[in-house]
Amino acid sequence: MAFESLRMELFGNVTLLDLIVFAIAVFVALVIAKIVAIYLKKSLSDRIPPAEMDFLIKVIQAVIVIIGVYLALPSFNINLADMLVVGGTMGLVIAFASQRIVSNFGSGLFLIAERPMKPGDNVNIGTVSGTVEEIRVLSTIIKTHEGVYVRVPNEKIFTSEITNFVANVARRFEYTIGISYQSDAEHAIRIVKTLLEDHPFVLRHPSPSVFVDTLADSSVNLRVFIWAPSRVWWSVRTEMLWAIKKALENEGIEIPFPQQVVTFAPGTGLSLNPGCGGEGEGHG
Questions:
Q1: CA 165 from centre of chain
Q2: What's the confidence (pLDDT) of residue 141?
Q3: DSSP code of 75?
Q4: Residues 159 and 173 in one domain
Q5: Residue 142, domain extent
Q6: In whole angstroms, what is the distance from residue 31 CA to residue 118 CA?
Q7: Nearest C-alpha neighbor of 197 from the set 226, 237, 235
Q8: What is the DSSP string of 201-215?
């Protein structure tokens, strides 16, 4: 009797059982949408602004509920084939009219899931370099080093090469420092190493490296490799170069200007007259 009462038609061909199945399907879809929303808030709260997060969650929840309703419709004996034709046609029209928006939205979802960058990161994307300010669903805001805010569509970001300068906790930079041939290269290396050991932001692991790299025309070139925390590497780089220059000068290590030695062949009768500013003068 109870089962037969569920088969009782309420209006048209719709029975009480159809309504119960439909309600259960919609309820399950709502529960799944709620769980997805909680998960997204926990995992993406540090990467997306609150307004963008709310919009994204509402869109995803709406899609889940629509799918749940669609799966429950057969209980009403509705011909889904006709709905698929109509829905497919409408979907194509909407997709064609808003293909850039859909592309940016999809790219935004992939960027959020892949997480190649986050707000505060120093990045280079195509021709744009700067700090990530916001990652939105349709676009990303970059603050350039000149203080200019640039809105970059997520589609362009997704298809471009992304260089994240702070994804690694440490970043290396280097100098080439020339000293004169008369200066003591070993003493110069010890001076530089002492400076590096005393600096609080020069990392010990990986350790810095200082060595003679090349014997150039006018100088002995020292190569210096330094690792520093990515967030402060630029300030360390600019500070250390000046500190090395001052320390070498204080210890009498000469940093030479480019120069050339000119030797006259014997018998040419040419000599230099110091009183004429270094200009050559011939004598008979």
A1: 6
A2: 92
A3: G
A4: no
A5: 116-164
A6: 30
A7: 226
A8: TS-SSSPPEEEEEEE
